[in-house]
Design a protein that fits this description.
The chain is α+β, with helices and mostly antiparallel strands. It contains 14 helices and 29 strands. The structure holds 4-nitrophenyl alpha-D-galactopyranoside.
Length: 496
């Protein structure tokens, strides 16, 4: 049906199967919905597919080139969104009206994408059998309509992660894969007196992507390590990428039929990392589901209570699945299995993950690209046209545009830096990142205690000890303990 819908002061021609009024806007039904918007050339909120994907307000006239590195596509964004980059959006989009109010169209179920131009907004669910083909349409003050959308998502998908986030020491941005049992045990005493809650072991402990056993650098095994972390007073945390598989793994050799393939039987590439291409699992297969349950039960048995589950989009890529589910619904099924196996009390942080699929299942969501001890990722941003690569500006940009998810899960902006050693960030750049981390409340660092000067250690201590009062005063403006902070002045906040 086509209707002329009055929302606030604007009239919109809307096409959908059916339309219901709602206190804060309207609910549209249909696999495909579209509307004519009156704003012409304006700002558009683009929401990328997974944690690292570009999410930002962009002028509709902006011509961003498609990212060049095709082998990286799935780890940049959904390949279908990149085909028509950049005014394609995952799950939701919004447009800014001349008076500053915004029009938001957001899917209330999984596997939806949108396209925007100066005349129309079109939304579509990618699979006809998706269970709930609903959309939320609202016009009003930016924070009000985003909050209303978040409220609708909470009703449909759930929310978790209420309460104060844990303070995390994470091994990645200090040691990368250069971790070992001895090195990590050597870090623990230096953290004494710093108020961390979690000591999280990141990538580098496993035999291979797919073979989730301790490698030779962890000769006493993961259970002993978890016990020692706990004995030092921390919740043991562990990174794993349970849906990603390296071609050199035993899992790949033993179960080629478990891997996600396209309709021609060809493996679906999930990205390029660890010096090789890697692939995703078909999580709709009973064998994979049993294996996944056992892997999660295993790490819980070892004693890890905080799980950072990474590269999850690998299980949500388009493919010909055993059970005919579209990608995000398949991923949600996997996350339900993981939550069930991990138990209610486990803390699940999802990363490299399409946002909506985690809601109600994850306690924390990584909402931006990786930080790095540098401000810009010049190679990927400027030479490859890709704004998802590790770097502080990329991380701040996308995280700032995902703060509306805060009622639904804790939002992880990635770690803050306090060290000067091995770091190209200036003091000002480190301070901007620390401010953003305070805004989210999710405080983590990877700085090695031996790298910190007495002043840096004191600053980290103060950062972890004090919960500042945060108020938002504008799209990019906040007060942190009455100190005004404006992220809007950052050069390059909007890519061009
Ligand atoms: C471990 C890391 C850390 C980190 C995660 C994730 O696009 N990329 O090339 C890309 C590589 C690594 C990456 C993200 C993107 O990092 O976000 O915190 O756990 O894996 O390998």
């Amino acid at each position: 049906m086509q209707t002329l819908l009055q929302l606030d002061k604007i009239k919109l021609a809307v096409q959908a199967e059916s339309i219901e009024g709602h206190a804060q806007g309207a609910v549209l039904h249909g696999m495909r919905v579209s509307l004519l918007h009156p704003f012409g050339e304006t700002l558009c909120y683009r929401h990328g597919w997974h944690s690292w994907s570009l999410s930002c307000w962009l002028p509709l006239s902006l011509k961003l080139s498609t990212p060049l590195a095709k082998s990286l596509w799935p780890q940049i964004d959904h390949p279908a969104l990149l085909e028509d980059y950049p005014f394609t959006s995952s799950s939701l989009t919004a447009l800014q009206a001349p008076d500053g109010k915004v029009l938001l169209l957001g899917a209330l179920g999984l596997d939806a994408r949108l396209k925007v131009d100066t005349e129309m907004v079109r939304g579509e669910y990618v699979a006809p059998k998706a269970a709930d083909l609903e959309w939320f349409l609202a016009f009003g003050e930016e924070r009000t309509v985003f909050a209303a959308y978040a409220g609708m998502l909470e009703q449909r998908l759930g929310a978790r992660g209420h309460g104060q986030p844990w303070r995390v020491w994470c091994s990645w941005y200090g040691l990368y894969t250069g971790i070992s049992e001895d090195i990590l045990l050597g870090v623990l005493p230096g953290l004494k007196d710093l108020p961390f809650d979690v000591f999280q072991v990141d990538d580098g402990w496993q035999v291979s992507l797919g073979d989730w056993e301790a490698n030779e650098k962890f000769p006493s095994g993961m259970q002993v390590l978890a016990r020692k972390i706990r004995a030092s007073g921390y919740v043991p945390g562990l990174w794993l990428a349970p849906l990603a598989v390296a071609p050199t793994s035993r899992l790949f050799q033993e179960h080629p039929e478990w891997l996600l393939r396209d309709a021609d039987g060809k493996l679906v590439p999930a990205g390029h990392n660890w010096g090789d291409d890697f692939y995703g699992l078909d999580v709709t297969r009973p064998g994979v589901q049993k294996w996944l349950t056992e892997r999660i039960q295993q790490v819980r048995f070892w004693g890890f209570d905080y799980l950072k589950l990474d590269f999850l989009y690998a299980g949500a890529l388009p493919g010909a699945r055993y059970q005919k589910l579209p990608g995000e619904l398949a991923l949600r099924k996997a996350l339900e299995i993981i939550r069930q196996a991990a138990g209610e009390v486990a803390y699940l942080l999802t990363c490299g993950v399409p946002m909506l699929a985690s809601l109600g299942l994850a306690d924390g969501l990584r909402v931006g690209p990786d930080v790095a001890p540098q401000w810009e990722n010049t190679d990927r941003s400027y030479f490859l046209h890709d704004f998802s690569g590790p770097g502080v500006l990329n991380a701040i940009r996308t995280t700032l545009h995902r703060l509306w998810l805060r009622p639904l899960a804790q939002v992880d902006p990635d770690v803050a830096y306090f060290r000067e050693k091995y770091n190209l960030l200036t003091s000002e750049q480190k301070a901007v990142l620390q401010d953003l981390v305070q805004v989210t409340g999710f405080r983590a660092t990877s700085d090695l205690p031996v790298w910190l000067s007495p002043e840096e250690r004191q600053a980290l201590h103060a950062f972890l000890s004090h919960n500042p009062q945060i108020t938002q005063t504008g799209r990019y403006q906040f007060n942190i303990d009455n100190r005004p902070v404006d992220f809007g002045v950052l050069e390059g906040l909007w890519p061009d």
